[in-house]
Design brief:
With 800 residues, the protein is an all-beta fold. Helices cover 2% and strands 48% of the residues.
Amino acid sequence: MRRNLILFSLLAITSSSIAANAGVVALGVEAPLSPPAVRSAPFDQRLAGIASNGWDFLAIWTDRRSSVPASPNLYAAPLYVSRVDRAGRAVNPFGLRLRDAVEGAALVRTARGYIVLWSENGGVISMLLDDDGVPAGPPKRIADGYIAGATSNGRTIFVVHGASSNPQFASIFTIDGTLLSRTTLDRTATQQSIRPMVLPNLSYSVVLKNVHCSGITPCDNVASLTNVSESGIASTKVLQTVSQWSQTAAVIGDDRLMLAWISENVPPAARTVWFRIFDLAGNPLTPAREIESTNDVPSISGSLLPSAGWDGESFLVTWQWPSASGQTGEIHTRRITTDGYSLDASPAVLSRTLGTAPWFASNGSSQLIAWDTSAYQSSDIAIRSVARFDTLPVAATVMMPDSATLQREVQLSQLGTNTLAVWREGETDPSIVATVIGRPPVVIAPGGTFDQQAPAVSASKSQYLVVWREQAFLFTGPPQPSQRILGKRVSVDGRVLDRDPIVIAQEPAGFPAFLPAANTISVGSDGADFLVVWPSVNDSLHLARVSSAGVALDLTATALPQPAKLAAGGSPRAVWNGQEYVVAWTADPSCKLCGRPPDPPNSRIFVARVSREGKLLDAQQVWSGGYGSRVGLAQGSNGSMLLAWGVSGSTNATDGCVFTMALDQDGTPAGSARVLACPVPSKPQLPNSAPVSSFPPQFPDLDIAWDGASFVVAWTQIADRMTFTRAMHASPSGLPLDAAPFDLGPDDSISFQPALVTTSTGVLVAYDRIAMEAQYGSVARVFSRTLLRSASPARNRSLH
């Protein structure tokens, strides 16, 4: 008992001393590193509905432009809306953000205006919108479960909902959300795309695929029509027997119902698109007729969707038609008469990419056909406007939505009074961009055929060297048997000195064939030449030199030592100590395919000395423990260094901590690992934030710099479905000098990927922030601000 009291008293005295000696945190005004340039919004945009008020249109979509690379939410996404004119152009190109996290949505037009419905927290929510998509009333929870589809006859709203993958109920509500009736559907109904219909008598219809399995015989799959009156009286009729791997679509026009479906059969492997015409009671008027078929089917998925529209004269069937690989393809269309005959000799191509099944809307004179441009990768929304479907193949395609260009992975370096910032800009064709802060940005490596990623920068006494990795785009790029480490020199005033990039290394593809963009590169300088360190394929970490004249000095890169079966070092840091380079990095034996930390956690940190000539002098392991992904390394005023890293799932300390370790000038540990901070999630999820997946505290990004009096350690913290940049001051021995971590980004913001550099007044901080301001459109942009030098605290006595 006495021992515990003594230990508690010592900890209390130490904590009080630290808090009393903490410097004042003085952050300057935040400033963007470059003005916004408008282009297609990044990441996935998925159309969720489109409707008309009889004049123009309104579109809603889920949008992942606000994704945080370290922690994307794979399920919920923000919901956006924009009015669309009769030519298919978005009136608000950026869109208006309605909700922060929905898992499904629908849009209908009523006599009182548009109603948007969405799924959130296990319920179906409705809200009235005006003709511009601006909320005209509060949201109201009207049902439990997830929304599968909705429509309206103008005076009531018909909603299909239930479990996330199984629609169970068809409910009818008043416009203000009062339940009028509820019909229980066949519990075996499964459908990926449910678009209910309004009958001429203002009752409702929905077509579902029902799967009946006895466990002995093969499953019986049928497409069934359920008609529901406003009073809730329902009738169901089987329309068509379909294959197990079928998806269906239906549309009503001229008192006829057209059913379309894609069948996938095995064996023999075949894929066929069919249609059939029925009356509104579900009685067949024509036999089933084939539209397109192929035997070149590499796999059966059951995920290919058709859709159907009516322009007042003819039906249009649209369907996804993948290539042999299954990852690319086209969207095909064919016009069908109400008598069941094709008006086209062969299918027409609506989209040269394998997009999603199109949506249809009509204002009486214009037909809008809209679809997502990609079914599997990052997508935009494409729209065509026509008077009739016969002109659809030659109509212009309009794209939406837009935003400011995406910016990520900022890095900083100081030369004299100038700071050079470099970052990765763009999504589908990213470029490497740099700016001397306060001057116009310049493009170091333009986007194009290959993926330019992982920028890094360092300064000698006269110039900067910017380095990056070039590799093929994952899945979408041309074959590339290697990756290249490239560089360009930049003058002190920001001019690019090399026309062509310096090829520092060209490596054959290995495992993994594609390195994640988050695998960082480090550059150090001895004042004249540069040392580049990078994660390579085949579980290795390489280094090579570049001369002040821009010549790659090492044709064969040096491999840093690592124990067998360790993943490639993902976070190298190189610092010149006046005589040699000190290089630190992490290595991790966790499974590279399973995507989880090692069990038990056993990441390791190594420190090596490298000569001016690029020769490895020695290397040692300085720490092992929990799952750590990044390290930071900086030199203080007396030549000593501080190593910092974040750990999740530690076996030797509290989960989710930031550690430090003092190093002598040669990189030898000058003390044991210390806990700088164990952040506890303290922020609630912010109302204007893009939610991220909920994890224990993690630290995917970390940096460190000397401010002239103390070290500043900054990191990205993921916790409580939020991500934000935080920092603390640390003494040369690694002790915390602040009572608690402080935020680098503005209040009520999502920020990540901090970068630090020492300046004459303290530390310049740069980071990515989801920019909610109107001129940016809620995408990640790079900002900077100054953290002024802290007051020099009294040196604390270490406790061991």
